[in-house]
Amino acid sequence: MSETSFTPRVFSGIQPSGNLHLGNYLGALKRFVDWQDRDVESIFCMVDLHAITVWQDPVDLKKSTRELCAGFIASGLDPEKSILINQSQVPEHAQLAWVFNCIARMGWMQRMTQFKDKAGKNAQNASLGLFAYPALMAADILTYHATHVPVGEDQKQHLELTRDIATKFNHDYGIDFFPVPEPVIEGAATRVMSLRDGSKKMSKSDPSDASRINLTDDADTIAKKIRKAKTDPEALPSEADGLEGRPEARNLINIYAAMNNQSVDEVLADVGGKQFSEFKPMLAELAVSKMSPITTEMARLMEHQDEIDKILSRGSERARAITAPILRKTYEIMGMVPPIEM
Ligand code: TYM
Prior knowledge:
Elements: E1 9-14, H1 22-37, E2 41-46, H2 48-51, H3 58-74, E3 83-86, H4 92-103, H5 106-110, H6 113-119, H7 128-142, E4 148-150, H8 156-173, E5 182-184, H9 219-227, H10 247-259, H11 264-271, H12 276-302, H13 305-334
Parallel strand pairs: 1-2, 2-3, 4-5
């Protein structure tokens, strides 16, 4: 199955479930902007239908969706260049997800580690939507025939499932219809870790607010969280090998590298030999200089919610020009009788 016969198109999404954090920014948002600037057609999505796989308070969901859209724009996404959408406004996502529920196998879904983590010990009480979550994610991507999907490392398994679904559909119907998309997991910050525990991913659901830098944190809070970040007593190494077995040191260096558009080796060449007492203020200064303008711009945009709503409506209109024909063709391939013009 050729992966190159499709025009390059980028798709990615983020859940509007609050606490947009530095991991989302470095692992996803910042990299979305890189793609946009390469002039590849790109679609970026607030995945509200994914968010409701666990309980969302309706008032909070609305606010988080708009805040996420503000975060996209404040991070540098241009709604004229990229298509910015709210998932529930583009019905083809959910429609194609149903098709993919019928393509994906139970065994594939049962292997998904994120479901196991999120459902925890009480899997019987998890929503059916949480189980089917990755099929909706495959639909998000494939309803645009997207070829490249920039994500953090934690989404790798879902992307592999998306590839399996595309391949099985094409095989079952004997047609090269869906591209087999490439996960793009690159850069120094594909897995930003908690500031309190270098073995845990930075996450919106960590009960400790000090574990993450939120995109809504002000400059003082950012600097304080970095000052208090867990470290070890050794000086920083001059080469990446020296980060072995030092997860907190590795994490702070990765964050610095990603924020400053440098490689880990370049950063260590500069800061090797320094104590954390010297490095942390450098990191805090860098983080504040990069993040504060985003926080300020997000707050400004949130004062113009009607503008945000317009951007999302316009985005979904542009999106549907792509998704509706692809869904129509999918149904046709599968043998659904189409409506006739009357
Ligand atoms: P979500 O909302 O959990 O996270 C959004 C993006 O942020 C990345 N990310 C991180 N990257 C580095 N370090 C971290 N600590 C960190 N935490 C989160 C995630 O990898 C992701 O790229 N299922 C997806 C949303 C989704 C999607 C899609 C993504 C729905 N449909 C289609 C791509 C394509 C999710 O829950 O991401």
